[in-house]
Amino acid sequence: MVPPYVAEFHAVSKSYPIYRRPSDRLKELLTFNRARFHTDFWALHNVSFDIKKGETFCIIGENGSGKSTLLQILTGILAPTSGTTKTQGKIAALLELGSGFNPEFTGRDNVYLNASILGLSRKEIDSRYKAIEEFAEIGEFIDQPVKTYSSGMSVRLAFSVAIHVDPEILLVDEALAVGDIYFRQRCMRKVHELRSRGITIVFVSHSMGDVKAIGDRTMWLDRGVIRELGTTDTVVSKYLAAMVEKDSEYLELKPASARPQHDAFAGPPEVIHTIPNIDHRHGDGRAEVLGIGLFDEHGRPQHLLTPGSHLIVRISVKAHEPVTCPNIGFMLRNHLGIDFAGTNTIREKLELPPMAPGDIYTVDFHVNLPTLYPAHFSFSPAIADGTLLHYKMCDWIDNAITVQMGHSDGPIYGYMHLPCRVEVNSRLESKSEERLAAR
Predict the structure, then answer these.
(1) Contact between 38 and 19 (Cβ < 8 Å)
(2) CATH code where residue 351 lies
(3) Alpha carbon distances (Å) from 269 to 176, 315, 436
(4) Is the pLDDT of residue 82 over 90?
């Protein structure tokens, strides 16, 4: 009979001794009367839950809430201070960058080392090695020492090994956050594939969009205690609401001199020279994007998008050569890197005059934000020369600025809430009344 749960925690607590000085540890070790020279830090306190076979169980919470400690207990790396745990099935874990890798060994050597630790024979690793190497896509670095890898390359290889050892339970602890958008998309597709095959997934992330996309159930840890446990939509909504409230309280506690002085706010600069991020940039270079900024209707910078609010997307561009028919715009992408929506000056029927070398244009896009699901969204600004159908790209910047969509008043079914007006049809209402009267 297949067990209904692959993992069970009953009243699990975990404490770490905290010593004020290194010598206190030695004093405690040598003292025969068991004098205490430390204080206990409880990373987990009385945590009880279970994980069903085949479900995707997500764990969320602020940094230091006990998420990583919990996963290390789940894998058997740590033992609980009190309480009991039980697991069923082979576990593959991606807990930390390069965890389990020997930095002096090559990537190839570490594949064989990690896979053998996870229970594969040499023959099984040989048969899967090509697939592991192809999914990781680190090229010739596979034969270089891991100490020469970037954090992203380490994650690529570690994730590839973890998914190719046929685990019954896959644990992922925020490691994918360091990956580029292309690799994260592939990883998320792989996670969905594993879900469809009935693999149990325990997923820890700060990306609420990822959690909502794959989570069957979600647990919110707060300072080592379970704050909420239930359906993903409900738990994520409560978590985001608490984070927004916490941020508001922080602003209230700041000294008056440190708070934004809205009355004296001069507004955003007419020309934006800031590009927070560049994942990829391409174009013929005849014109360039100087900067992009997000502001509210009063000109205040926006770092959190509010559903239903008014947003100004300001983009500044500069011409280095003549641009006959300039078209400035942006693409909005969701947390999976999928193009969600976009627009440009020609699409909005704004005809810009030709640009001569040295000309600088700044365009404001006034956007009434729909109610979108809480996730990270990025803006990719661009300038092209030509019409909507026939144009040459001058400059395009992938994911120049990324912001979080805030919590909405109610649940989001799907990806967005459609503006909607509901009314009762009067004719149907009258017929219903006639039927009732006839009875």
Answers:
(1) yes
(2) 2.70.50.60
(3) 36, 11, 66
(4) yes
